[in-house]
Amino acid sequence: MGNQQVALDYFRTCLPQNIQDTLDFSTLRQLPDTYVSKDLQKSISDIIYTCRKADATEEVKIALLVEHKSYIDKYTPIQMGSYLFSGFLKQIGNGEAPSLIIPILLYHGKARWEYKTLADLFNNPEPALKGFVPDYQYIFHNLGEIPDEEIQALHNKFLAASLLAMKYSVLKDRLKSLIPAILKLPGETEKNLQNSLIVYTFVNSGLNQDQIFALITSLPIQNQETVMDTLEIFVEKGRREKTENAVKNLIKQSLLTDEQIASAMEVTVSYVSDIRKNITAEK
User: Which of 100, 141, 217, 267 is the most exposed place for a label (fewest CB within 10 A)?
Assistant: First the structure.
């Protein structure tokens, strides 16, 4: 969401059309972190955008706040409410008139989560007390209820790939089978965005190193190069482990000298010697 074009395409995906019609997306801009209070800065990792109303002749802003969850938290309306009032207080502190804030809850967990408001947390208070229950509406964007085909059909293919990766981040078996499709979707995308997508996808995949290597080699050459560059730390570690295992096998199964093994495996003699010492110590 730190990329403005991705954020814009996301808002056009998740916001109902009647709300989009009230907004002038050409004025969309990201607000600085200082928009929220210092207390919330310690816990909030979400990004806030603002834009003007479509019919506004004066500076009337509407802020768009995205909160995302991978698990059910029935107290999320309270959490988002704290963001709202923090935003209002910050506006006033900045000498601004309060402007609307539209909260968006992006959910990509495994369990079913129904839309609940802040008022739903209170057990039917008496009519005389209902006026003391603070309440507000929010956009509930539940990825689990959106078909994969609809996500993949999005105009912004990086956004489509990211939403698919998020949707199945808690369903690892399904994510494993979708990784090739997810990595192919973005095509030519900014390198930093691609890197973020690749790392997020593989970290959540639950794949071991051998499975990662096998999956990478099944990708088209262009995708292989991008993934290999991004996961260089995984690849390099795997290479080191494979080399070490090969040297161990040569030591255990042959009469070759350390010099001969080092020459065959293109490593130093001291490297082979240290492994031989470790094998001897383990016996």
Answer: 217
Nearest to 223 by CA among 185, 196, 173: 185
Give the CA-trace dihedral at 79, 51, 4, 21, to 10 degrees. Answer: 100
Instruction: Report the distance separating Cα 33 and Cα 221, nearest Å.
Output: 40
Residue ranges of the domains in the chain? 1-145, 235-282
> What letter would DSSP give residue 58?
S
CA torsion 171-173-178-179 (nearest 10°) is 100
Tokens 């009647």 -> residue: 18
- Per-residue pLDDT tens for 82-117? 888 888 888 888 888 888 888 889 899 888 999 999
Six-digit token pair at 106?
Answer: 């992006």
Is residue 97 within 8 Å of 62, Cβ to Cβ?
Answer: no
Q: For residue 29, give the H/E element and its range.
A: strand 23-30
Cα distance between residue 242 and residue 233, in whole Å = 14
> Is the overall model pTM greater than 0.90, yes or no?
no
Placement of tokens 């007390």 in the chain: 129
